[in-house]
Amino acid sequence: MNDDIERVLYSQADIAEACGRLGKQLTADYQDKVPVVISVLSGAVFFTTDVLRQMEVYTQIDFIDVSSYNGGTHSSGEVRLVTDISQDVSGRDVLIIEDIVDTGRTLKFIIDLLKDRHAKSVKVCTLLDKPAGRVLEAKADYVGFVVPDEFVVGYGLDYKGEYRNLPYVGVLKPKIYVNK
Questions:
Q1: Burial tier of 79 (Cβ tally within 10 Å: 0-12, 13-18, 19+)
Q2: Which of 102, 136, 138, 177 has its CA 20 to 30 A from that of 129?
Q3: What is the dihedral of CA 42, 34, 24, 144, to 10 degrees?
Q4: Cα–Cα distance, 144 to 137 (Å, whole number)
Q5: How far apart are CA 46 and CA 148, in angstroms?
Q6: Collapsed DSSP state (helix, strand, coil) of residue 132
Q7: Is 102 one of the catalytic residues?
Q8: Is the pLDDT of residue 75 over 60?
């Protein structure tokens, strides 16, 4: 897998530092609250667990799975709900944890869904923010890194379901996915 990576953007140490920084910020912002943390499957699982371990407040966790990539390198433009959350978020503070905010479609879909379900507040924490990919207005409240407009994998991010288990975030060599 490592041979398929053009270059490492964020090392394990970089990611650990970002998780610590975000965990402290979230601890301060969620003092005296018990947020429902919604991890976006499958990519955000690694980031969610690492950030939650840095938060020193009570939390409840849930999962949602939405899809717009269907295994490729670009969003299909259509977002579909694959697996819904199990908790009632009405009147609750909700923190969405995402691996990457790219086009904004997935994030907008989830935010709208939670607002329709009368969440008290909805905030977003993402490991990576890729503003160059945005087609819909979507803003993360907490950002680990702003990422260049390249196809990245690792630490939860995948290409065709692979590379999620790399301990870093790297740029996938184009020869791996171009004309495939």
A1: buried
A2: 177
A3: 30
A4: 19
A5: 21
A6: helix
A7: yes
A8: no
Six token digits for residue 98 = 């995402």
pLDDT in tens, 10-23: 999 999 999 999 99
Rounded to an integer, the average pLDDT of 35-63 is 98
pLDDT of residue 67: 83
Q: How confident is the model at residue 178 (pLDDT cuts 50, 70, 90)?
A: confident
Residue bearing tokens 């993402």: 126
> Which of the following is catalytic: 102, 116, 149, 158?
102
**pTM to 2 decimal places:** 0.93
Judged against a pLDDT cut of 80, whether residue 68 lies above it is answered with no
Of the candidates 64, 5, 57, 63, which has an alpha carbon nearest to the alpha carbon of residue 33? Answer: 57
Domains of the chain: 13-148 (3.40.50.2020)
| CA separation for the pair 29, 73 (Å, rounded) | 34
| Helix ranges restricted to H, 117-150 | none
